[in-house]
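lol forgot to send this yesterday, sorry. struct tokens for the thing we talked abt
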């Protein structure tokens, strides 16, 4: 059974995330974080067979160096208060697209609440975190659809 453990964002101590910006952002060093979402144990592999994402049933999430994502979407600016929340949110939504995490309304809400918790824990003002939360609640469902998976293309 998947659950979301209530957490006080002001009492969380977030591990430091090393990342590079450019096209979205790239994780510069392996990253591990305990999340409040428990009950799913899964791995995602890259094309060479190496694990790039590991989620354990007790809520630990490992993301390998060089993992890339688009970060926060929409009319906004990325900064140090959004980086961790956006990364973790992108990873969970990718797991949904891949069919490795349930994408029901209940589970998506858990992911979005975790996003809010991480934004607040990183120091984002409450009013701004609330706007971001409602942005993903209202506009994020389509990003969990399997049809939104990234397709590998070849040229020429």
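and heres what i got for the seq, position by position
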């Amino acid at each position: 059974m998947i659950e979301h453990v209530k957490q006080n964002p002001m009492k969380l101590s977030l591990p430091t995330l090393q990342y590079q910006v450019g096209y979205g952002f790239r994780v510069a060093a392996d990253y591990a974080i305990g999340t409040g979402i428990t009950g799913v144990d899964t791995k995602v592999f890259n094309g060479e067979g190496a694990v790039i994402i590991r989620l354990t049933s007790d809520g630990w999430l490992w993301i390998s160096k060089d993992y890339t994502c688009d970060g926060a979407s929409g009319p906004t600016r990325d900064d140090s208060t959004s980086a961790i929340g956006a990364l973790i949110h992108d990873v969970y939504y990718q797991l949904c697209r891949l069919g490795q995490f349930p994408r029901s309304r209940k589970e998506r809400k858990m992911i979005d609440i975790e996003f809010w918790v991480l934004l607040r824990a990183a120091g984002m003002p409450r009013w701004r975190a609330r706007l971001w939360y409602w942005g993903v609640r209202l506009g994020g469902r389509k990003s969990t659809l399997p049809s939104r998976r990234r397709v590998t293309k070849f040229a020429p």
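The chain has a mean pLDDT of 86. anyway ping me if u want another try
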